Fold GTP-binding protein.
Amino acid sequence: MSFFSSFAAAAAAPPPTVLVGHSYTQRVAFVGPFGVGKTTALRAISDIEVVDTDVATTERRADLPGKTHTTVGFDYGELKLDDGQRVGLFGLPGQDRFHAVWRTVLPGASAVVLWVYGDHDDAPQELTAWLEALRGCVALDILSVAVTRLSGTMQDVDAKLGPLRDVLARFNPVAPLIAADPRRSEDVRLAVAIALAAVSLG
Ligand SMILES: Nc1nc2c(ncn2[C@@H]2O[C@H](COP(=O)(O)OP(=O)(O)OP(=O)(O)O)[C@@H](O)[C@H]2O)c(=O)[nH]1
Ligand SMILES: [Mg+2]
């Protein structure tokens, strides 16, 4: 085939489908301390393959024996809600040195889920510090809190959540706070649904 005939054939062929950008209508960001489970949570619910920026870390924490990687950019996934809406999911890095990523992603967020450790003795102080840090980057009326690593009876869990609810109420009295395990897709879906519902009511 000559150059001219192959050019003519290519011009006559239907154009290829090229997908650029994204199809989501809402953007939910996961924030929280190193190793709390933001990447785990995103992987638990994303219905596309997660694009992550996890790299191997030389630091090991005794309380996180399986934690060999850390997020240095952000994770990206997508979720289709029961009502058909597509949600873009962004998992941010937990380490302070990557805070430039927060300032890039958070301004476009529809809702932000702050994941925190529920089993730390100083969990209320940690939550206070995170809320103070986030206040500078995001409106707290789009924020909700998911508390991890809670076990025991419902009374045990409530006893741990009570002081955290008190802290959150000082920043936003109507912000949702739930117990959630980042490894369980039902918990993570619920955290996302509650975060978006709270924003739409607000
Ligand atoms: N035992 C236990 N382990 C958990 C729980 N939630 C998460 N993990 C584990 O904790 C680790 C969390 O790791 P990541 O998901 O990488 O944490 P991350 O918040 O993305 O961390 P950075 O991006 O480094 O800030 C994983 O090994 C999870 O399996 C929990 O409720 N209980
Ligand atoms: Mg991560």
Q: What stands out?
A: The pocket of magnesium ion (ligand 2) is lined by residues 38-39, 71, 91 (CB under 6 Å). The radius of gyration is 20 Å. Helices lie at 3-12, 38-45, 99-105, 123-135, 154-171, 185-201. The domain at 16-201 is CATH 3.40.50.300 (Rossmann fold).
